[in-house]
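Attaching the record inline, Q. Sequence:
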Amino acid sequence: MTIAPGRLAPTRPWAREAAEVLHELDVDPALGLAEDDVVSRRTAVGPNSFPEPPTRGLLGLFADQFRDVLIYLLVAAAAISVLIGEPLEASVIGIIIVLNSIIGVFQAYRADQALAALKRLSAPMADVLRQGQVSCIDAAGLVPGDIVLLEAGDGVPADVRLFTSTDLQAAEAALTGESVPVRKSPDPVAEGAGVADRTSMLFRGTEVVGGTGRAVVVATGQKTQLGEIADLVAGAEGVQTPLQKRLARLGTVIAIAVVVICLIVLAAGLLRGEDPVQMLLTAVSLAVAAVPEALPAVVTITLAQGASTMIKQKALTRRLPAVETLGSVTHICSDKTGTLTKNRMTAEEVWLEDGCSVTELAQIAALCNDAHLGPGDAVPVGDPTEVALLRFARPLWHEAGWHRVAEAPFDSTRMRMTVVCERVDLWAFTKGAPEVLIPRFRNNGRIAAQALTMAAQGLRVLVFARRRLDALPGRVEDVEDDLEPIGLIGLLDPPRNGVEEAIAQCATAGVVPIMITGDHPATARAIADRVGIAAQSATTITGAELAGMSDEQFAQRVDHLNVYARVDPSQEIRIVRALQTNGRVAAMTGDGVNDAPALKQADIGVAMGDGGTDVARGAADLVLLDNNFATLVAAVRQGRRMYDNIRRFVKYVLTGNSGEIWTVFLAPFLGFPLALLPLQILWINLLTDGLPGLALTAEPAGRDIMSRPPRPPDESVFARGMGAHIIWVGGLIGALSLTALAFGYHGGSPNWQTMVFTTLVFCQVVHAFVIRSETRSVFTIGLFSNRPMLLALALTVAAQVLVIYWGPLQGVFGTGSLTPAELSLCIGLASVVFVAVEVEKAVKRTRAAA
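Structure, as predicted:
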């Protein structure tokens, strides 16, 4: 039977009687749909799944690697080389571009494959009633009108409207952020009820933790609440990482400099009557000298190395620039449950009334309970609080012989649960919140005071009581007066191992940890105290207080807030935006569907790999495979190291290029011919930038890496004296190279150009070795602390010697064999760079001490 498409999407089903919804969907709840109905409805609404994001494939990933200013410069340099008849130079530059792109594609593909291995469907299978028969099917095959059967442990496969249930509870934290399971029933609720209050509905991506029920599917695929949030994620803003911004600015600076210098040299030469072809060759040489051909490749390799190291530390990088972004994070906004804590409620403290035993307390905890632990290491089923109570009770008391004859279940209004159990005698056992149970006791002074004391410690306090019965009451609720108090159990989700140390490391590193939770403020404060967040002058704010602030008011206070309690997940994105408004770099952790928009908005979104949702992982830049806050802090350390090493490389390569520019630029003005051939410049840039540059990226982290504040988000690449170093040390290298040129040219040596070439290479070799630290002497950090550097320098020198003395390479590069005296002069001039940079570092140390 065909049904109109409009009737396949009932309006506000939570507010209507279940029978009315079933009638609109034209389904018999006792039989379910017929197969013909299923086929026609699936044709009308499509599968119960989300469309996969468009895959770019390897070609798409390859094309993405060309969206970089420095790559554009390399392409321009190659084009100029072709125009002036230098195909060899153009070919070499083309090879560099392709190699850089292959590295980027490989890392992006590897990250995507790792995420595919992590991917888990929220509810891949469903028990469905069709044609009077129950079968287990792929959840993607569900259609509106299907009757699904639900029990504890099931994932909810679609948005469904309950029409019958028994003590059904659902964990909706992944969707609403509410940590306490929600009691569900078929009773309609108000039309204006929010998602968290639609107790007649269950939603895709949530989990049944207690009871049983039957429901009719009312929404599938993107029409579900989960699907709407996925659409919101797609619309959330993406932000450029600090590294992308800095490299874009650097590329712009280099491009402008290349154009200006080339025009100056070309114009000056033409005005002096120089040969136009020779001057064009000189201009092209300057262009090749100015463009750091190896920079994109080395930056990509450095980030890939960082990503590889981080995955060994249980952190998976989805986007390479995220490695560096971690190094500039100023605030880490972390969910409490599962990241700062173990996500395993534990009985932390027990208090007994006079004359009562812990066995009696354990008896009530076990009998007044709907959870199931299962045998051995089986995954427990049920509410986390009740699971914790069973774990507490199991070694202390065994329930053999008892059976439940009646119950009054827990709900958010009653805030208590009572069961009537029988073995020989008939007993009522009750547990609940102190504020609703303690007033029912006759003598309640001591237990009331103790409950307040335990609550002040941030424990979730439950009261346990009992009453002996003569007969089964008409209403279970009637036995909840005149109860005998037995004791209190204080529950706490304990902090993860290593979190306190990680928080302390954040303090020394100038990173502000922020805890966000849906728990009570006292519980939030207790965890903050335990892990050390409160020690950092933490101020607690609730979601209600946040809702009462304007964006301007919140932005004024956000820098002084560390603990957010009772926060609605939709408010997370507001927290991130307020921090960003104040110029902060915010990392946000999350695992639920509801966290995804905030993950996308954050400067770096961090999802959970163990138990997190696909939507959250898809929105994140980083995935914590062990869900541990300490892993995130270790990733921050790795990010800082990677940025430091990239900065060392930029400093090294631009200083070397600066020396080449000064040499080529000034030589004609000093009356010398072209100091270097374009291919020689390209060799210098690829050899000395490549091998020693890569070795710089392997430099170990400095001892102060987590003892300094984060970099300002808008800090220039040339900050902290790097720009001055590039200019003056580059000028020094240029002067030393021109000195070699003067000695060789005026001395009548046929190898004068080779002397310039070799002096530049040796100067850069020395420079790479001496700049491994900005302030510490190489003798302090250790001559052998970076063994890859020693190997790289040895290979660079060996390669240069081959170019100088091996016939076939002499013909390619236009070199000649240097005499021992000429080679000694080149080495001696290069050693000046070592002394000069060591003096610069000594001056910095002196100024810092002053």
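The radius of gyration is 35 Å. The chain has 31 helices and 21 strands.

More tomorrow.
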